[in-house]
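Could you show me just one protein sequence together with its fold in token form as a worked example?
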Amino acid sequence: MSAAPKFTEEKLLSIKPWAPNLFSFRMTRASGFTFVPGQFARLGVTRADPDNPKNPSGKKVVWRAYSVASPSNTEFLEFFSIVIPGGEFSPELARMRVGQPLYLERTNYGFLTLDRFEAARDLWMLCTGTGLAPFLSILGETNTWSRYQNLVVVHSVRYPNELAYADAIRAMSAKGDARLHYIPVVTRRKRAGFLDERVPALLDEGALEDRVGMQIDAASSRVLICGNPEMITATRRLLAARGLNPSRRGKPGQLAVENYW
């Protein structure tokens, strides 16, 4: 008896552009695919393979990892993507039309999850660009809101039109739950009411904590960081100086991180 394939064939349900190089998309979800909010999935798209004479079909499947942006209880999967010029995957994905096939690995991946932490008062979610995706999934879970008294989302982008999902995040807070604090950061175009320095600088200066009126410390805070490696490295160094350490197997800490490329 042959083993089941490692992936399922799914379909693109919708695609939403946010900026010229930024979009989100939804796809069908295999009934057996499960994940913990904060994890990522491996997706496949078919593209031309003209330079491989050993491939008579002239096509190949290219795979990439994407953090799930949708909550764990939805019938679909949602993802948030940037188009990388000349890339093998994202330009092909951005050209797809509703109904076309995508492939989904059956296995989930990643450790940017709340089960890595012991209980605390505040949850800080610091991200750049499409690193927002896993935090959207985490915010969509009822358990997140019951575990923490305060939720802080810091989303840093270059330009204002890259603040995808801003209205959705604000709507969560507008429902009357003052526990959610949304801090948009725009680094390349000053705009009234927005912070405009990079996340490590804002953390070092205390601007993030001043904005929400809370301190980040090992006793009361848990911190998730997702985005570009430079931001993560600098932010981890600053938080380590305050006594916040990465969570490891069998040794819960106060930090969990995910490089987004």
In short: The longest strand covers residues 7-19. The two ends are 38 Å apart (CA to CA). Residues 114-259 form a domain with the Rossmann fold fold (CATH 3.40.50.80).
